Structure formats: structure tokens, C-alpha cells
Amino acid sequence: MQVAECITVNAILPQAQFAGAWDSIITNAEIKKRLLHTALLGLQIRPRLSFEVTALHGLILLFGSPGTGKTTLARGVAHELTGLVTGGKVRLVEVNPHGLMSAEHGQSQQKVFELLCDYVPMLADDGMPTVLLLDEVESMTVSRSAASLSANPADVHRATDAVLAALDRNAATHSHLMVVATSNFTAALDEAFMSRADAAIEVPLPDVDGIYEILRRTLKDFSGPYPGLQALSSDGALMKVARRMVGLDGRQVRKLVTDAMARRIETVIDPGSLSLSDLERAAAEAIPKPSSKAPHAAA
């Protein structure tokens, strides 16, 4: 795969398709505030002060269990920044890091360095504030101290070294570039990568109030084509269902609605006939996910 093929999104925001991303994630307001404030502060002061003064790499790490909304928050913060930066426009670039990893000796390092030091800066050479999203970054920043001898550790080290070198170079030369990386498995991340993060922010599993709000919003959205769900979406007894679902991620909570519908032929034919008891039965059988291990670096 060529480096250019690893770019899955290259968009100038604001755009309607990204406008709802930020509000769609139900999480602690402080998490969103810290993400937005860290990104904006970096974009403001890095052009005015040298790296030697700020020590900022322009890197934010979002970590936590799968399904908690890390990727959507990364897209959302890029859109939110458009209302705060000079010019009102932000470029969003997304990378598929798995496409950079190659079984050929030395190829991973070469591709990572070419992408981060040459290709992405070329896309952002107009100086527009740019958010680079590196999803599931553990695939390209494997901990060198824990690299398995059976997995060609030399190439693992080289790929991680290339990421670190690119972060260092871009920190000094591309102050308008902000990297937002996500990770589901921080124990696999290289310590030197984590130490370069300006902020490491955990996006936790939703609490019972968050689960209730996700359920309520999902049912309300479904009530457009299925008006019978409008009353259910405002039923205070949904909190009882939410309590049964503690430990599920946001994606699982949303999917529980359709899982409950699929259990009876009546609700398959008419999803608007879904009942509270249908949701309770589905919630009773849902299996929560274990939480992600927190990084050793200070948040």
C-alpha cells in the first residue's frame, strides 16, 4: 500500500457530516473541555514560542475501552475548533495506521516517516490549523521494551523510532499541526511516545446517567420513522434498564436497542412496538467489556 492510500480522510471543516460528532458522544463534560482546550492552546502558543520553551509536541492521546467514542471525539474536536481559530477553517486528516505496517524488512519505518514527515506536512503546507487523527496508534508505536522476539523486533523498533522522530521534527517545524491519537490498549504503547503527549486523556465507559442518556437519545432518534418509540424514549423507567447495563460501552448501549428489537418477530415487523420489558431482557444478557489499562504517563 502506498502512503497516499493510508489517508482515509482529507477534509476542510466545517462540514455538515462532521457537525454532530462532538455532541453525539455522551461523556463527562470535563473530558471534552480538556480535549478542546488543550488542542486550542497548542495551536495558539506553539507558533509564538519555541519548542524549547513550551516542550509541546502537538500530541493528544485519547485512551480507553473500545466503543467509548475516542475516534468520534477526535473528529468532533476538529470541527469544534473551526469556531475558535482564526479563519474559521480546520483541516482534518485521518490515517489508517495498519496500512503502514509491512512484513517487508524496513518498509514500516520508511512508510511511517514518509507519511508523517513528508506527506501530511505537504497536505498542510498552507498553514491552516490541521488535526491529524491516528486511530489505534498502538499498531505503529509498539512498546520497544516489550517487543516479541518472534515479531521482528528490529522493524518494530524502527517503526516506533520513525513516529518519535516525526513528532519531534513536526513539533519544531509545523506548529499548526495537532496530532490526536487514540488507543484501546495503552499497555502496548511505547513509553517514549506516551511521554511526548501534551495530554493523555482517558475516555471512560459511560456511567449509569450516561447510559440512560444514550438510550434516551437512541430511542428518540428511532422515533422519527417509528413514532411508537417516542413515549418509550421519555420513560423514566429507562433508568432501571440503564442500571443493568453498567459496564457496557456506548456502542454496545446503542446496539442494545436493535438487539432487543430482533428478539421478537413482532418488533422485527414493527420496531415501534418495542417495550421496556424487551429492553430489560436484552440488558440482562448483555456482556460488559473490561476497561482499558491506563497509561503510565501522567494524564
Quickly list its features.
about 300 residues, alpha/beta, Rossmann fold, 2 domains, six-stranded mixed sheet, 14 helices, elongated
Give a written overview of the molecule.
There is one protein chain. The chain has 299 residues and is of the alpha/beta class. The chain folds into 2 domains: 3-202, 3-Layer(aba) Sandwich (Rossmann fold); 208-285, no CATH class. The chain has 14 helices and 6 strands. It has a 6-stranded mixed sheet with strand order 1-3-4-5-2-6, sandwiched between helices. The model has no long low-confidence stretch (mean pLDDT 90).
> How many whole angstroms does the radius of gyration measure?
21 Å
Task: Report the total helices.
Answer: 14
Derived structural class: alpha/beta
Q: For the record, give the distance between the C-alpha atoms at the N and C termini, rounded to a whole number.
A: 35 Å
Q: Would you identify the regions where 5 or more consecutive residues have pLDDT less than 50?
A: none
How confident overall, as mean pLDDT?
90
Please summarize the sheet with the most strands: 6 strands, mixed
CATH superfamily (homologous) name of the largest domain = P-loop containing nucleotide triphosphate hydrolases
Series of H and E elements:
EHHHHEHEHEHEHEHHHHHH
Furnish the topology, listing elements before pairings.
Blueprint: E1 7-13, H1 16-19, H2 21-24, H3 29-45, H4 51-54, E2 59-63, H5 70-81, E3 90-95, H6 107-123, E4 130-134, H7 153-173, E5 177-183, H8 191-195, E6 199-202, H9 208-222, H10 229-233, H11 238-244, H12 250-261, H13 265-269, H14 276-285
Parallel strand pairs: 2-5, 2-6, 3-4, 4-5
Antiparallel strand pairs: 1-3
